Amino acid sequence: MPTIIIHTSLGDMTATLYDDTPRHRDNFLKLCRERYYDGVLFHRVIKGFMIQAGDPQSKDQAGKLRRQLGAGDIGYTIEHEIMADKHFHRRGALAAARTSDEVNPEKRSSGCQFYIVQGKKYGKRELKRMEDALTEYRRNGMEQRLLKPRAPELLQARMNGDHAALSRIHAEIEAEIAKQVQPFTFTEEQKEVYVNEGGTPSLDGDYTVFGCLTDGFDVLDEIAKQKTDRFDRPMQDVVIKGIEVVE
């Protein structure tokens, strides 16, 4: 597995990239070797959650007029490589940012923006409540996607007072949801890690995790504790000086 060193204005973090997420691994290594990340900021920092970087519009913004960052991209996205039961959002996980399901139902990753999980520790009851909430969230999302193309049919049935047709349509949608949305459960490994090490389990299954820190957790915590403005941007800019690929 390739190793990288993220050199920042607050210190260095070392990470390995997973070989079984080759699209993300190769893209990230390419950008590092091209020095794409030199000068970009950690533009979004949320203590107890994660730190995010990679927006090209953040380059050369250190010390300048403060504005919201995070909308910049490289002009392409990457097919997801989500393996939530194997590569999950444990403390130190390196993952690809992306736009929301509403505009990106295929969960394609940003070609350049990434985040590193700080997270926190969770109790077993909290994890069970999260499993139930994630199941309901995905169920509701699927329901909305299935309802949209059938909206004219539903409207016509309501206008006609055709209760049988309404019941039939909703039953068909419920049956499709039952086929596509299985109850979400964390693996035993995930539960053990989230209880003892910490992380951000609410992101599992929705974002591609393609690496993990092996050193520099103190730097991760230092970045995460920075005071931020209303855009979650650190008041003291945290700059990536470069990302070194260790051959």
Structure at a glance:
The protein has 247 residues and is of the alpha+beta class.
Description:
The chain has 247 residues and is an alpha+beta fold. The protein folds into two domains: 3-121 and 197-246, Cyclophilin (Beta Barrel), CATH 2.40.100.10; 125-180, no CATH class. It has helices at residues 22-33, 124-147, 151-160, 163-180, 188-196, 217-224, and strands at residues 3-8, 11-17, 42-46, 50-53, 77-78, 93-96, 109-110, 114-117, 209-215, 240-246. The strands form two sheets. It has an eight-stranded antiparallel beta sheet with strand order 3-4-8-6-9-2-1-10. The termini are close together.
Q: What is the terminal-to-terminal distance?
A: 10 Å
Give the CATH superfamily of the largest domain. Cyclophilin-like
Radius of gyration equals 21 Å
Order of helices and strands: EEHEEEEEEHHHHEHE
Query: Total number of helical segments?
Result: 6
Beta-strand percent range: 15-25%
Number of strands: 10
> Given the C-alpha coordinates, what overall shape results?
globular
Main structural class: alpha+beta
How many domains, in number, for the residues?
2
CATH architecture assignment name of the largest domain = Beta Barrel
Estimated helix fraction: 25-40%
The strand line-up of the biggest sheet is 3-4-8-6-9-2-1-10
Overall mean confidence score, pLDDT? 93
